Amino acid sequence: MAIASWFSNFLFYGAIEDAKECFASVYQALEFKKVLKNNNIKLLDKL
């Protein structure tokens, strides 16, 4: 039983950590886009 509860905790908290990291990276990408827009920086025009 201890192994099963450890395993479920591991999966559950692992999923929460992954979701947090995912949200953090999405937030950073949106903020980065906002900064580029506000400063009118055009990085992709040179490609």
Question: How does this structure look, described?
Answer:
- This protein has 47 residues and is mainly alpha-helical.
- It has one domain.
- It has one helix and no strands.
- The chain is rod-shaped.
- The N and C termini lie far apart (58 Å).
- The mean pLDDT is 81.
List the helices and strands and how they pair.
Layout: H1 2-39
Report a brief summary of the structure:
By secondary structure, the chain is an all-alpha fold. The protein has one domain (2-46). It is 81% helix and 0% strand.
What features would you highlight for this structure?
1 helix; mainly alpha
Largest sheet: none
- Strand percentage lies at under 5%
Order of helices and strands: H
Tally of discrete structural domains: 1
Question: What is the molecular shape?
Answer: rod-shaped
**Alpha carbon gyration radius:** 19 Å
Which structural class is indicated by helix and strand composition?
Answer: mainly alpha
- The tally of helices reads 1
Unreliable residue runs: none
Helix amount, in percent? over 70%
Mean pLDDT: 81
Number of strands: 0
Oligomer: single chain
